[in-house]
Design brief:
Length: 333
């Protein structure tokens, strides 16, 4: 078997091993120094031999180091699986490949045959209803979105150029991580974070920690019903890709109804190429993830242009891809 074939066949195994480590919070337990699988098993109420096998696999991936027969320590690379570090991906790893998502991916072929999201087929409800009825999973999801926003924020702030605006409204802005970055970068800016009440639970804490709470208000609501007025820039970060075209149009039309004629719409999304190539694999795989989990999709520039036109917007600019996730800032008026 070639290396490439090995990656094709066992890539999911790697992600599931990392996800298990994240769900068990192994990195947090190892941050103070080496431990044995016996000690860790007691702390986790886990089977020692099974846990030792997981730790060895993590050592093979470079996330732990096996310093003795039954002694493991966290490596620098594995530090990102701690829950409290600035570069943490712990919640992202746990959320993306937890049991609920894993079961949904088991319905991939059925989703392809029917067009019905794998999540709906696996759980009997849409993803957003699942999180509404599972508070623990919802908390992990919200933390994962915060981690994702934090990693992307520096490049996005530069591309958004917040100094152009007086007030930015972050539609579906969750815990306020991105708006806090924008407010920090531009001291005269005012912010509004609009989301479901459950999505806003940690927003006040985030804004206070960044010392920008006095310049940002929180607005609970549902963007399928209406979007608040009162801003000259409306921000949609990774919102439209969660939904099919009909739902995306409803969100855009509600934004359009709230916006004054001079306001700007800023969509922060990955963008599919017109012709796929190997360099586009990350975005192409996220597109399949949307097919399985949410029923949404990634889109090409032409597809964004069409959606925006139908909602009463004109696409005016598209930025270059912004690392680390290759987001574009898609601007419309």
């Amino acid at each position: 078997m070639t290396t490439n074939q090995d990656q094709l066949l066992f890539g999911a195994t790697v992600t599931k091993v990392v996800s298990a480590a994240a769900e068990l919070n192994l990195a947090d337990l190892l941050e103070d120094g080496p431990r044995s699988s016996a000690d860790l098993a007691k702390m986790l109420d886990a089977d020692q031999q099974s846990l030792r096998r997981l730790l060895r696999a993590l050592a093979g991936l470079g996330l732990t180091q096996q310093t003795d027969t039954d002694q493991f320590e966290l490596t620098e690379a594995g530090g990102c699986l701690r829950s409290t570090t600035d570069d943490s991906i712990q919640a992202l790893s746990a959320m993306l490949w937890d049991k609920a998502s894993w079961l949904s991916w088991g319905e991939l072929v059925t989703a392809i045959r029917t067009g019905v999201p794998g999540w709906l087929q696996a759980h009997g409800m849409f993803w957003i209803d699942y999180y509404t009825s599972h508070p623990k999973a919802s908390a992990t999801f919200n933390k994962a979105m915060s981690q994702h926003s934090r990693a992307a924020a520096p490049g996005l702030v530069d591309a958004i150029r917040p100094q152009r605006f007086n007030t930015i409204l972050d539609v579906g802005g969750g815990d306020g991580t991105l708006i806090a970055e924008l407010l920090t970068a531009q001291p005269t800016l005012q912010g509004i974070v609009f989301d479901l009440s459950s999505g806003l639970e940690d927003a006040a804490t985030t804004l206070e920690a960044r010392a920008v709470a006095d310049r940002c208000r929180l607005e609970p609501g549902n963007f399928f019903d209406e979007v608040p007025k009162g801003a000259d820039a409306y921000l949609l970060k990774q919102i439209l890709h969660d939904w099919d075209d009909a739902a995306a149009l409803q969100i855009l039309r509600n934004c359009r109804a709230a916006m004054p004629p001079t306001a700007h719409l800023l969509i922060l999304e990955r963008m599919l190429p017109e012709l796929a190539s190997p360099k586009d694999v990350p975005t192409l795989l996220v597109d399949i993830h949307m097919l399985v989990v949410t029923g949404g999709r990634e889109r090409t520039e032409a597809e964004f242009r069409s959606l925006l036109s139908q909602a009463g917007f004109t696409l005016t600019a598209v930025s270059d891809a912004i690392p680390p996730y290759d987001y574009r800032v898609i601007e419309a008026t």
